[in-house]
């Protein structure tokens, strides 16, 4: 798959440009794009237009007992995760401090929280860590393999910030500068 058209979304999440066929889904290679005279950037633009046309449900779940609000994005199939590439379009308003994202195990499901206040962001990290693969709250299970911090730039402006018990130094530094 070294010739595949890919976009890195974070340290451990990479989007692969795919094409649906009657016999299944296949990734698109640089070589295929060259053969038909297509610009890879134009192919990605067309793919994102197709993703925008796919059904996506957004539901915000209010946190209780000091927990942070989380927005859940759910697509109808495994292509729902393609919406991560357009996260900036999904959040309401600007996000100068970025967005925390947890990718869940169910096809096409991820949860996110816009970073505004330090305590809410810390609570969001904990809430994301305790989600089961289907988005239910489960303190005995870790459904996300890591929490990611999308800093509001392009698709390469994302890093894994909470793979273990502690936050990454860069994330902790940013949170220290926010109001409680």
Describe this structure in words.
The chain is an alpha+beta fold. Helices cover 24% and strands 24% of the residues. It has five helices and ten strands. The protein has helices at residues 30-35, 40-53, 87-90, 118-129, 169-176, and strands at 6-8, 14-16, 18-21, 24-27, 56-61, 70-75, 99-103, 109-114, 147-150, 158-160. Strands 5-6-8-7-9-10 form a six-stranded antiparallel beta sheet. Strands 1-2 form a two-stranded antiparallel sheet. A hairpin with a 2-residue loop joins strand 3 and strand 4. The longest helix is centred in the first third of the chain and has 14 residues, at 40-53. The radius of gyration is 17 Å and the shape is elongated. The termini are far apart. The mean pLDDT is 81.
Tell me the layout of helices and strands.
Layout: E1 6-8, E2 14-16, E3 18-21, E4 24-27, H1 30-35, H2 40-53, E5 56-61, E6 70-75, H3 87-90, E7 99-103, E8 109-114, H4 118-129, E9 147-150, E10 158-160, H5 169-176
The rough form would be described as elongated
Q: Find the structural class using helix and strand composition.
A: alpha+beta
Largest sheet, order of strands side by side?
Answer: 5-6-8-7-9-10
State mean pLDDT (0 to 100 scale): 81
- Tell me about the biggest sheet? 6 strands, antiparallel
Cα radius of gyration in angstroms? 17 Å
Low-confidence stretches at least 5 residues in length (pLDDT < 50)? none
Element-level helix/strand string? EEEEHHEEHEEHEEH
The share of residues in extended strands comes to 15-25%
Oligomer: single chain
The number of distinct β-strands equals 10
Give the termini separation: 45 Å
Helix content: 10-25%
| Discrete helix count | 5
